[in-house]
Write a structure and sequence with these properties.
By secondary structure, the protein is an alpha+beta fold. The chain has one domain: Pseudouridine synthase (2-Layer Sandwich), CATH 3.30.2350.10. The protein contains five helices and twelve strands. Strands 1, 2, 3, 4, 5, 6, 9, 10, 11 and 12 form a ten-stranded mixed β-sheet that branches. The longest helix has 12 residues. The radius of gyration is 18 Å and the shape is globular.
């Protein structure tokens, strides 16, 4: 796998949908991005993950010290991550009571807990870990909306759970969307599009973007409406 950026300390890669970030349990789950990268860069180490069905930008460290420094950036929320997704319906109308900020962003706060009886599903629950996501609508139609999302925290399935919790699951989501919404796309329409941080060794600001074209997968954004 060829990175879109590499230097002596880190790699930035674009993971395809359907590929695990790290190995899973069982021989059928050993093919993953980290192993493919390590075939070419044996010193490469994972820093964060994307869900198997999510595509987009992923950062890996080259060596233990780089992994330590990059992990610290994630822990202290100094890495900016921005996603795009297609969700069912028009969430801007659902959350109309919450006024967006000057840039159109709205916030979802909902503690997330693993549902042990139905794992790997996660749910909104008072006993869960505090979780916050920001989102704004980019384009809407009568049936779906293209949105941007920023995870303020980094819980498993966070963006998927939060959008499902307000009644707007992502198209193609096999875990959190009802069958009719899942059937609207052959894959989960969630993509890690932007990644920005200060290089932990050089202190240079880095920003990466991997645009995605879902026009062939999601013909549901043809009738546009102005955003409130």
């Amino acid at each position: 796998m060829i990175p879109i950026h590499e230097d002596e300390h880190l790699l930035v890669l674009e993971k395809p949908s359907g590929l695990l970030s790290v190995p899973g349990r069982g021989p059928e789950k050993q093919d993953c991005l980290s192993k493919r990268v390590q075939d070419r860069y044996p010193e490469a180490l994972i820093v964060h993950r994307l869900d198997q069905d999510t595509s987009g930008l992923l950062l890996m460290a080259r060596g233990i010290e780089a992994q330590r420094r990059l992990s610290k950036l994630f822990e202290t929320r100094q890495v900016k991550k921005r996603y795009v997704a297609v969700v069912a319906g028009q969430p801007a109308q659902t959350q109309a009571a919450e006024l967006p900020d000057e840039e159109g962003w709205r916030t979802i706060d909902g503690p997330i807990l693993l549902d042990w009886e139905r794992r790997p599903l996660h749910i909104i629950h008072p006993d869960g870990k505090a979780s916050r996501s920001r989102w704004r609508a980019l384009q809407t139609s009568d049936s779906a909306s293209l949105i941007e999302l920023e995870p303020v925290t980094g819980r498993t399935h966070q963006l998927r759970v939060h959008m499902q919790s307000i009644g707007h699951p992502m198209l193609g989501d096999s875990l959190y969307a009802p069958p009719d919404i899942k059937a609207l796309s052959p894959r989960l329409l969630l993509h890690a599009q932007e990644l920005a941080f200060v290089h932990p060794f050089t202190e240079h600001a880095l920003a990466f973007k991997a645009p995605v074209d879902w026009s062939a997968l999601s013909p549901y954004l043809t009738v546009q409406h102005p955003q409130p």
